Amino acid sequence: MASHWRSLLRFRPTTRPLIIFTFCLTVIHSLGDDVDSCDKLRLGQYVCKEPKIDDATQEPENCKDRLAWVECLPAPNISCRLSNGTQFKFSGEEVGFNKSIQCRNVSGYSYKVAVALSLFLGWIGADRFYLGYPALGLLKFCTVGFCGIGSLVDFMLISMQIVGPSDGSDYIVDYYGARLTRLSITNETYRRTQLSP
């Protein structure tokens, strides 16, 4: 029985260098994996700068396609791998990576103006004219805001940001103000089921 196990452990002379080479590559690869990419750092290992806010749009200045980029500084003595593959140890002053943040597509329609027009002049359709819906504005004007009911409904829809500008853009809302974030359910949304005891 012992001779059977010895014969299984014997390798051909050409196979031994291949096994040693594979073992060495595995060891070298495992030693190099202790440093992750800089963009995979955990929260607390880096600090991101605040974005520069445009006064006219109240959105980050570099907002394109609903994304903006902010510079992030890894904490002192953090080592990580840069995007070009080099390992770098940070002192806390260098920019390590850029992080994307969400921003909104705005085109000049103010939320405050839309709500004020809806509240005070909604009965003549001024809110709908302002938002780019001239047909509905004219209809509200001719019917005195659908006898007041349409004005009330429009005020609620505009104040909850359900009705927005006709071009599909978002309202200009103060960057640190009260913004509405819509939640949506898509195929990527996971449903958490409660486990019964």
From TrEMBL:
- Give the domain of life: Eukaryota
Classification via Pfam families: TM2
- According to its UniProt record, where is this protein located? Membrane
InterPro entries, sorted: TM2 (IPR007829), TM2D1-3-like (IPR050932)
Major place of residence: membrane
**What's its membrane topology?**
Multi-pass membrane protein
Keyword annotations from UniProtKB, A to Z: Glycoprotein, Membrane, Signal, Transmembrane, Transmembrane helix
Q: An example Gene Ontology cellular component term from the record?
A: membrane
Q: Where is the signal peptide?
A: 1-32
Similarity comment: family membership = Belongs to the TM2 family.
The protein in question is named TM2 domain containing 1
